[in-house]
Design a protein that fits this description.
The chain has 172 residues and is mainly beta. It is built from 1 helix and 13 strands, in the order H-E-E-E-E-E-E-E-E-E-E-E-E-E. It is 13% helix and 42% strand.
Length: 172
Amino acid sequence: MLKTNVERLIKRIITIIVSFLFISCEDNPELTYEISFDMRLNEDDNGYYHLVLDRNKWQTLHRVTGSVANTQYRMENFWVEWESNLYWYIGDTLGYVVKRGLTDDLVYVNYDTTYVTWFNGFEVPTSNQISYSNSEGLFHNMIAPVQSMIGDTMKLTAYWYDGSKDFSIVLD
């Protein structure tokens, strides 16, 4: 009789384990989502966006915003890669560092200037390269064209795991 009870218990345990396997192995529906972009720029009739560059600064900073949404899941950490066709090169001096000290009378004085020159010829992209969405599904990208690009058209491309989108931005 003891052997029969043990056999029944083993059969029940096996049945429960197999049931859990079948329940947990159901097919997951394919992930569907919607992705949208807000360039925060005026768009003309030809589909070109227009960004007016600041004539008083070397670089003009502009934020591009996007969102990804899904009705079943939160879309946090959605990865978007960015690429721009425009680059610029750093000249002979990136900037300088002024060394300061205090006199015996506790007055600041400048006593040396060091120029930052080791970036000479360094290629600088006009777009950040990667964005991740936050817990709300929002992601952002900064673009930073420079004054010498006035009149050019920036081609900004966003890539994600199964798609991409191009944007043409006229730099006025």
